[in-house]
Design a protein that fits this description.
- It is a single chain.
- By secondary structure, the chain is an alpha/beta fold.
- It has a domain at 26-257: 3-Layer(aba) Sandwich (Aspartate Aminotransferase, domain 2).
- It is built from 13 helices and twelve strands.
- The strands form three sheets. The protein has a seven-stranded mixed sheet with strand order 1-9-8-5-4-2-3, sandwiched between helices. It has a three-stranded antiparallel sheet with strand order 10-11-12.
- Helix 3 packs across helix 4 (101-108), helix 3 packs across helix 7 and helix 5 packs parallel to helix 6 (153-162).
- The relative contact order is 0.18.
- The chain binds pyridoxal-5'-phosphate (PLP).
- Pyridoxal-5'-phosphate binds next to helix 3 and helix 4.
Length: 409
C-alpha cells in the first residue's frame, strides 16, 4: 500500500504544478498598451474601439445577435432584469445553488427571489420545481449553467412558455458551452456572462449581456450607460446607472478571447481523461454525460462525494488528504443560498415593497440543494489545463485515499 502524503509518503502530484489563473500573455500586454496609448480610455469617446470590438466578437462567439459589455456579471444580471421590465414586488425564480449575484440582482430591483430546487445530479434548476413555485406574481426565471454545465432547456423552456415567463440565462460559468449545437446565452430571452478573475474568460472584472431581440438590446444599451443613446453625451432617455466596461478591460478580454478555444479544447480533453480515471473508483462521480450538451464550459469542476464508499470518511477529511497529495479541491458553494445570512436574516424584506410576500428563507429546506452542498467537491477550471499526467495524478491521489481510509479515521 502506498503511504499517504498526509502521513509522510510522496504526494501523488509530486513534480506537477497545476496552472495558475488568470494568465498574462504577450497579446494581453500589447492590447492594453494600445488602449493606453490611444488615450481613448472610455467607450463613450468616439475613437474608443476595444469594448466595441469585444462586444462584437464575444456575442458572435456565443451565437447571439447583440452583446452589451458591462462592468461585471452582477451588473449584467441587473441590466438583463431591467431589459425585461422587472418591477418592485415581482417574483423571479432562481436556483439556491449559485453565487449570490443571481439572487441579489433580483433584490437590487426591489423584486423577490423565489428559490426552486435543483436536480442533485446536474446541480441546475429542476423544471418541475420551477413550475411548483409559479404564482400570479411570477414574471420570470434566472437559471444558471452551473459550472458551465448547461441547464436542461428541453424541460425548462416549456414551463417558461406555459406560464408566459422570461428566461434569463446566468451564463457566468459557461463561456463556449453549447446546447444541441447552439452556444448558450441567447437561447433564453437574455443571457449574462461574468469575466471576473476566476472565470474561464477573464478581464479581472467584466461582464456581458447577450440577446437576439433588438428591442431588448436597445433597452440594455440605455440602462448600462446612464440612460444615454450612443453618441449623445448629455442626453438621457432613462434613469439608470453607469455599468460600462473600461477600454482596458475590453482590450484585455480581446486578447484572452484569442486563447479561449484552445484552452477549452484542453479542458475538454482533460475532462475525458479525468472521467476515465474516476470510472473505476466508487464514491466519486463527475456530472452525467448528456448528448444534448454538445460542448460544456468550465468554471468549477464538480464531483459528487459519497462518504459511504469511503468507509464513512468525512468530506473534510477526504479533502485534507487530497490536498496533501497536491490536488487542489474545495467544497464549492458551502450552503444553500436561502441559508446565507443575507437571506436567513430576511434583509430582503427591507428591499421590496411593504405589501410583497417574502418567503421565510431561514425555514426553507430543498432536498436537492441540501444534498449537493453536503456532498460536492469542486476543482477550479485551471486544474483541467494541467500538463500531461495531471489527471492521472488526481486519479492516483483519490485511489490512495480510498486504499487508506481505515487509517484515516
Ligand atoms: C453564477 C454567477 N453569477 C453571477 C456572478 C457575478 O459575476 P461578477 O463577479 O462578475 O459580478 C458570478 C460570479 O462569480 C457567478 O458565479
Amino acid at each position: 500500500m502506498v503511504e499517504l502524503a498526509l502521513h509522510g509518503g510522496p504526494a501523488a502530484a509530486e513534480g506537477l504544478s497545476f496552472p495558475s489563473w488568470p494568465q498574462c500573455t504577450e497579446q494581453s500586454k500589447e492590447n492594453i498598451l494600445d488602449a493606453l496609448e490611444t488615450e481613448a480610455w472610455c467607450r463613450n469617446y468616439s475613437d474608443a474601439e476595444w469594448v466595441d470590438t469585444f462586444e462584437e466578437r464575444f456575442s458572435d462567439y456565443q451565437d447571439a445577435e447583440y452583446g452589451i459589455a458591462v462592468s461585471n456579471g452582477t451588473a449584467a444580471i441587473e441590466v438583463a432584469l431591467r431589459m425585461l421590465d422587472v418591477h418592485p414586488g415581482d417574483e423571479v425564480i432562481v436556483p439556491p445553488y449559485t453565487f449570490i449575484a443571481t439572487a441579489s440582482a433580483v433584490t437590487e430591483l426591489g423584486a423577490v427571489p423565489i428559490f426552486a430546487d435543483i436536480d442533485p445530479d446536474t446541480y441546475n434548476l429542476d423544471a418541475d420545481a420551477v413550475a411548483e413555485q409559479v404564482t400570479e406574481n411570477t414574471v420570470g426565471v434566472v437559471g444558471v449553467h452551473i459550472a458551465g454545465y448547461p441547464m436542461d432547456f428541453d424541460e425548462l423552456l416549456p414551463v417558461v412558455e406555459e406560464h408566459d415567463l422570461f428566461l434569463v440565462e446566468d451564463a457566468a460559468h459557461a463561456q463556449g458551452a453549447e446546447w444541441r449545437g447552439e452556444r448558450v446565452g441567447a437561447i433564453g430571452d437574455v443571457g449574462t456572462f461574468s469575466f471576473q478573475a476566476s472565470k474561464a474568460l477573464s478581464g479581472g472584472e467584466g461582464g456581458m449581456v447577450v440577446t437576439n431581440d433588438d428591442v431588448l438590446a436597445e433597452q440594455g444599451r440605455l440602462v448600462h450607460n446612464i440612460g444615454r443613446m450612443d453618441g449623445k453625451v448629455y442626453r438621457h432617455y432613462e434613469l439608470a446607472s453607469n455599468m460600462r466596461l473600461s477600454e482596458f478591460q475590453g482590450a484585455l478580454l480581446c486578447a484572452q478571447l484569442d486563447d479561449l478555444d484552445d484552452q477549452l479544447a484542453t479542458r475538454r480533453r482533460n475532462d475525458e481523461r479525468l472521467r476515465a480515471e474516476l470510472a473505476d473508483i466508487d464514491g466519486i462521480s463527475p456530472k452525467p454525460q448528456d448528448d444534448r450538451i454538445t460542448a460544456r464550459g468550465y468554471c468549477l469542476y464538480d464531483l459528487k462525494y459519497d462518504p459511504e464508499a469511503f468507509d464513512g470518511l468525512s468530506r473534510d477529511d477526504f479533502l485534507e488528504a487530497l490536498s496533501a497529495e497536491g490536488v487542489p479541491a474545495s467544497k464549492g458553494y458551502v450552503m444553500p443560498m436561502y441559508k446565507q445570512p443575507a437571506f436567513a436574516r430576511n434583509v430582503v424584506q427591507a428591499r421590496v415593497p411593504a405589501n410583497a410576500s417574502v418567503p421565510t428563507y431561514r425555514n426553507m429546506f430543498l432536498p436537492g440543494v441540501e444534498e449537493v452542498t453536503s456532498t460536492n467537491i469542486s476543482m477550479s477550471h485551471q486544474v483541467l489545463l494541467a500538463e500531461e499526467g495531471g489527471m492521472e495524478a488526481i486519479g492516483h491521489a483519490i485511489r490512495k485515499v480510498a486504499e487508506n481510509v481505515d487509517i484515516l479515521h
